[in-house]
Amino acid sequence: MAWERAKLLWEKIHAHASEDKKLQGAALIVSADPEDESMQTTFAKALGTQLEADPAFAEELVHLMGGSQAVQEVVADHQSLVENVGQQLKGAGKQSVRASDNSVIRGVQQSKE
Prior knowledge:
By secondary structure, the chain is an alpha/beta fold. Helices cover 49% and strands 28% of the residues. The two termini are 27 Å apart.
């Protein structure tokens, strides 16, 4: 379910990026190496600028993600290891930690305000 939602969200962003060259370029470079933090930052800045300029698009993405209630998840699967994750949630929402398939999660700190 989460993977399908993420794919749909990416498709919407990618389709919208055709209207914005900066967002298009940032989406392309982050898709080439999704784990690179500098590329993630570049993409986040370009997407943030686009969302500020187009509130209807921002609302569409919020709707696709399940509404305005925040969800933060730490998920480990397929014998993976997740360590030292911090999450801070402001307002209404849900936080969860889930490990399966011989995976390990350590050092998770979650807080709500």
